[in-house]
Amino acid sequence: MADRGALKLVGFIFATATLAVMLIAAMVVRGYADGGYTQEASTVAADR
Question: Which domain of life is it from (predicted)?
């Protein structure tokens, strides 16, 4: 049987990582909603 303390630590690590990913995803979605980001590729004129 696994040690309960170790399982709590692993669960805390996974919960922290999940929360971080959710917060980053929410910030990206909010950025798209506010118009800060665009999905269109910007074109750069190259002098040749």
Answer: Bacteria
Verdict on whether the full-model pTM lies above 0.90: no
Report the candidate in 24, 13, 37, 22 with the shortest Cα–Cα distance to residue 5. Answer: 13
Alpha carbon distance 40, 32 (integer Å): 12
Q: How far apart are CA 32 and CA 8, in angstroms?
A: 36
B/e letters for 15-46, b = 16+ CB within 10 Å, e = fewer, are eeeeeeeeeeeeeeeeeeeeeeeeeeeeeeee
pLDDT digits over 16-34, tens only? 999 999 999 999 999 888 8
Amino acid, res. 31:
G
